[in-house]
Amino acid sequence: MKIAYHDIYAHPLPEDHRFPMLKYELIPAQLLREEVIIPEQLFAPAPAEAAAILLTHTAGYWQQLTDQTLSPREQRKIGFPQSPALTLREIVITQGTINVALHALEHGLGFNVAGGTHHAFADHGEGFCLLNDFAVAANYLLHHRKISQALVIDLDVHQGNGTASLFANNPHVYTFSMHGAHNYPFHKEVSDWDIPLADGMDTATYLRLLEHALPVLINRVRPDIVFYLSGVDILSTDKFGKLKVTQQGCRERDEMVFQALKKHDIPCAVAMGGGYSTHIRDIVNAHCNTFKAGISIYGH
How far is it, in rounded angstroms, from Cα 96 to Cα 110? Predict the structure, then answer.
């Protein structure tokens, strides 16, 4: 099992970028400390090639990213000021998801410590997302005929609006999003299947909805691979999530997904997605639980 790891010090970011990125350092450190993984399972991806990115994103937008010519309005929509380091980081993260997807096809499961940048559209970024790593990876696998059908299971509390838009007319990628009905993005795109969640939803109700949906998805789509976005902003401790799912409930969610996929021998590529709890330990613990659940079910 391989894990794409991104050193936040390799390409230093402006100070206002640092706290949101801190979990990407702490997750692998905790997994190593708890002996859930060994150092040899971590790898640092190279930057993705332009050809791979251009299977998903427009040439004009790619040029804006590489030339650092996003307008102030476009930068506000993303939520970060542009910088060469931020762009490079997203390009590396995107390659990480391609790599773990290829690894999953061979070995069953792969993790990206970052990724899940599901608010990026073909021609613009939104919501802290510049490039849509799941979309790029899915299109890469399709283009190279590694797969014929993909399924995106997006359980971040925010709808994967960019992903839904990118695959709206693509029958080879089925998009499923279970998200806060009254949360960002306030204009929702249309996924192949959306389940909007009421504010304050508790763990039992959340898990019951997911338990019903998973077998339907698998039978309907029969995917060659699943891209699983395991956002932990569903937690009751999350500052923006508006749900009441416990840490244990979040882990049970992950176990439910992995068990359903493993039962049908479906490879799974995982990206972490969002998490905005006040205490970073809550974010890191929940993300680490995703790794523990996947490894216990798929094995190393």
Answer: 10
CB 250 within 8 Å of CB 244: no
Global pTM reads 0.95
Residue that the structure tokens 């230093």 belong to: 12
**Annotation says 158 is catalytic:** no
pLDDT at 20: 54
CA distance 201 to 214: 19
Q: What is the pLDDT of residues 49-94, one digit of tens each?
A: 999 999 999 999 999 999 999 999 999 999 999 999 999 999 999 9
Instruction: Judge whether 209 and 177 are in contact, CB under 8 Å.
Output: no
User: φ and ψ at 218, to 5 degrees?
Assistant: -65, -45
Per-domain residue ranges for the chain? 2-298
Q: Which one of 57, 103, 118, 119 is the catalytic residue?
A: 119
Q: Is the dihedral of CA 24, 26, 29, 30 positive or negative?
A: negative
CATH superfamily of the 2-298 domain: Histone deacetylase domain (3.40.800.20)
